[in-house]
Amino acid sequence: QIQVHRNVLEPVDDVIKALVAKAGPISPVSEYLAKHEGKWFGIPTTVGSQVKPCCSRMDLYKQHCGIDLTAIFPANDNRDPKLVDSWTWDLYLKSAEQLFKAGFPIGLPMGQTSDAIDSTGAMFRAFGSVMVDEKDNLKVDSNETRAALEYFKKLMPFNPPEVYAWDDAGNNRWLISGKGAGIQNPPSAWAVAKRDNPQVAAQCWTHDMPRGPAGRFVGQLPFFYGIWSFSQNKAAAKDLLQFLSEKEQSRQLVAASSGYDLPSFKSYYDFDTWQKVEPPSGTVYNYPPRGDEQPTITGYPARPDIATQIYNQSLHTIMVAKVCQGNEPIDRVVKWAQNELEGLLRT
Questions:
Q1: Domain limits of the chain?
Q2: pLDDT per residue as tens digits for the range 35-65
Q3: CA 122, CA 159: separation in Å to the nearest integer?
Q4: Which of 33, 152, 257, 324 lies at 20 to 30 Å from 117 by C-alpha?
Q5: Of 67, 92, 71, 90, the residue nearest 80 (C-alpha)
Q6: What's 2-46+221-268's CATH class?
Q7: Which residues, at least 6 apart from 175, have a Cβ–Cβ distance to it below 8 Å?
Q8: Which 3 state secondary structure label does DSSP give 50?
Q9: Cα separation of 321 and 99, whole Å?
Q10: Are 247 and 268 in contact (CB under 8 A)?
Q11: 153, 337 Cβ separation under 8 angstroms
Q12: Contact 297, 91 (CB under 8 A)
């Protein structure tokens, strides 16, 4: 929305400068979305902003896969690098098969809503796949894209068949029902389970995404404040937004959301909410990206107006559906995506 409305938004470089002076760098994803030609047109909010890492049933992973997620991703900064390195997409695939055979499939949505788009885009990024680069060069026809699609061909059969029709609530319901072993989502699913199915909530552990050949990536979806360029009192608006974005106010907002809301300043990740909320104690400590997990957004690194179309048209999830549900050859699907992207670049 920042890119769509930037011509009628007031630059907020002065607010960003003041916030960065106190809090340090802003998430690269937020900068990518809100900065245009060197000027900031949006201020990342705490409210509503989120990432979508793994939320897993630690009891099922331990029982059926022999994986102790709390040992790999403890509720503190004392991680064992070797254990963290072991959490790869290969291990994720192996454990997904084990959980499926045990009767507790993972649930990865593959429809055309944000949960599916965010997590699927992060998975493509982990394999090094890019649709369009920052200079408008088509990059989708690559070995990296094919490797990602080959991986999905192996992974998706270990999901419920209805994932292709899920909306953003589908994966939440799957976990809360007790039938699913894991999803990729903010702590909202855990929070509802705490209310509706406490036994499931007590076994949920939010943790990093697996690492792929190109790194460990998590889908980020930041929200933004903006000021209309025709506003009558821009100075007051800037003062208010700066106040709301400072650390103490963000601390209260994160606490009110039980850790769901995620600021774009990494220096805010020391809020004790992520350590204290339960059950179990520390369940969402690893929700903010820590260690080598890198935030990303589907469509990056294309210029934001092109990336917006890649995102809104759900090209990544449609590719997966064509290959895994429609049984179309990978080369044909890659060619389809290339034709779609060529059309976006012509508009």
A1: 2-46+221-268
A2: 999 999 999 999 999 999 999 999 999 999 9
A3: 18
A4: 257
A5: 71
A6: alpha beta
A7: 55, 57, 107, 182, 183, 185, 189, 190, 193, 200, 204
A8: strand
A9: 22
A10: yes
A11: no
A12: no
